[in-house]
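User: My instructor asked us to take a sequence, write out its structure as tokens, and then describe one feature of it. I'm not sure where to start. Here is the sequence I was given:
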Amino acid sequence: MGQAGGIQVSSGTEAILVPVLNEAGVIGSFLDELAPHARTRRVYLLDSGSADATVAEARDAARRHAIALTVLPCPPGLASSIRCGVERSSEDRVAVIDGDGQHDPCVLDALFAALAKGCDVAVASRHVPGASTAADWPRGRRLVSVALLWVMRCAVRRHGVRDAASGCFALRRAAWERSHRFQTGGYKFLLDFLTASPRLRVAEVPVTFRARQAGRSKMALPVLWEFLVSIVRAVLRGRVPRRWISFGGVGALGMLLDASLMWLLHGALGIGFAWARPVPILFGMTQNYFLNNALTFRDRRRRGGGGLTRGWALSALGNACGALVNWGVSVGVYSLGAPWLVALGGGVAAGAVVNYMVARDIVWRVRASR
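Assistant: Let's start with the prediction itself. The structure tokens for your sequence are:
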């Protein structure tokens, strides 16, 4: 017998992880459908703080079908929830399947069979022969999905995975133990895991991807942003920290706003360059602050009028320091005889580092618990 997070389980067994968040009205029928595939497997309900009757409904269904169900309170974020479930279980093979009914539970047997044949990871794929997608899937979502999957396929081409965004997959405990030290994003656990694990034997099995049975999508702006950050990090082979990528992305949006306002004030309205500069700088800096508060440092975000105002003032001070460092480094590098473009790049890079350090250690610092 083994123990994980206070849960006594048997080694050499299989487990099913079901991440949920406010799935009342669908989780019961999902477990009804899952029951034939859970007879010899433990089911972990990964609850990220449901405010409805999700847990009670799941327990009722488990009692009806004699399912070995364990409810695990998990942190917010789909990927973080799955990571919690993998870490707190100890079965040799674990599969993940969404609790909203979009995946046909029949695919679980095929996933575990692929692991039994020696694969480290088995993916329920929408893009292999035999797979199908619900006819009533929104056309816009299909187009976005195809575009993003093409980028992800390029990012994880060393594994040859066609559907790295799948929310249904299975993995061996041994593969997890080799690669568990990696940063988890907020949405696609599988993409992060494949990025961090260069040596994996991966198989894909076809899945029937259905329309959501009830509830609504959890794809809010912060989740979508985390997803995009995961894709960029995968393209960069996991060599750049997630916060760096997010901070840089927000900075790029700030530069776009800055340039747009300068075109309007200086180019279109004819206001002098020196007089026009303060407004775009102020707007760009303010946009960056609120986006970083909502996205890059969401886990430390400032709340309330006073907290937001103090944070903005600290961020403005940090940007001023970064601008000063940018100026000093670029001038210093240029004075050494470097081309102006090299000097400019060095100054921008140095200023960005200072801005990030101020943001991380001052504006959104982690406050020590008592």
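For the description part of your assignment, you could build on this observation: The mean pLDDT is 82. Try explaining in your own words what that tells you about the chain.
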